[in-house]
Amino acid sequence: MATIREKLQSAAAENTKLSQTISETAYSISAHQQSENYVRDLKKQIAAQEKELKEVNRHVDKEYKDHQKYRDSHMKRLAYKLGGKKLKFEEEATREEKEWLDAVAMQLKAKKGLEALNTNLAEATKSSADLHAIVEVHNNARRELDALYKSVFDGPTPEMQEEDAKENEVKEAEQKFNAEQLRLSTEKQARAILGDADMFLNRAFVDIQDAKSSATMDAWGVGGTFTEMAENNALSRCQQHVSQTEMLISQAQRVQPAIRHIGDMRIAQMDFLSNVVFDNIFSNMAMRDRISDSMRQLTLAQANLQKEVAAEDVRVRDAQTEVDRAKSVLDTKREELQRVRAAAFERLANGEEVGEARPPQYAVEPPSYQA
């Protein structure tokens, strides 16, 4: 089995080449990000300019029609002549023409501005694409260097106990990060389900309001059979939406047991005998009261659901904080490990013992990681 020194010697040339590539292309990361920001800003400006140009085009069309209408108005010209106001007619005609020409000038300015923005966008897009290609070279070199380090140092290296210790720290940090990431995914899933439940509960509340409105009309003898049908349909929709809400709440609770029940939501339903066969003002008023009770339950359920949504938002934020913290620790541990590994190549290049431990001096930063 090859010793760590032999592995380093075998990989030294590749390490030098990849490290040089990483150093020469490091500028592309921030440059590409800046370029992308510029492209997004130009697109926003173009959208605003296109909107403005549409408004200007409409203004030009209006002014031209006014100008043309005034210029071609023989009856108005005749009236001014007969009234001895020919000069006034010509002044107003000139004013109409000036307003039209001013609008055309604005239109031309907007078009030129839009053309300039589109030219800038084309150039910025090409520049961003060129930078993206360099970023890919940079990232590929980092990945290749990482793979090279892994092939050389992965597993126990008795000659380099510090490297083994750093490698174990990375593994522990990875386990912590993965656990926190799983927790965050779970909380986000629960939050998404609660969002769906809130949507269906809002629909149910709209339905119960419609049902109450129809019930009120029915109690006063307005609408007859049509009103009763509308009331029944609204209650049926409401029940369907409440059932969907209850199913989603149960689903969210399975994902996150801390989510509490939001309360009973019993939706009043029309009784065929009471509300159709023996329809009268008393049965109608009783039905309206039952609908009001259902509305109160839905109102309370909405308030309770909002509390659960707020509580889940807090859990999502806390989980995100822990993920960010774990990610920071993992990145730090990985960088420390890569520094130890890079130092081994430096010691080899300087003719020193590979296992010697001294603070490394870097011409090139080791590859960073994105989890």
State the main characteristics.
single chain, 371 residues, mainly alpha, Helix Hairpins, f41 fragment of flagellin, N-terminal domain, 2 domains, 0% strand, flat, coiled coil
CATH class of the largest domain: Mainly Alpha
User: In terms of per-residue confidence, which ranges show pLDDT below 50 for 5 or more consecutive residues?
Assistant: 272-278, 356-364
Q: What percent strand? A: under 5%
Shape: flat
CATH topology of the largest domain: f41 fragment of flagellin, N-terminal domain
Distance between the termini: 33 Å
Instruction: Note the total helix count.
Output: 8
Radius of gyration, in Å, reads 37 Å
Estimated helix fraction: over 70%
Helix- and strand-based class? mainly alpha
Number of domains: 2
Order of helices and strands: HHHHHHHH
CATH architecture of the largest domain: Up-down Bundle
Q: Sheet bearing the most strands, described? A: none
Write down the overall mean pLDDT: 79
Number of strands: 0
Region (Disordered): 351-371
Coiled coil: 1-66, 163-190, 316-343
Keywords: Coiled coil
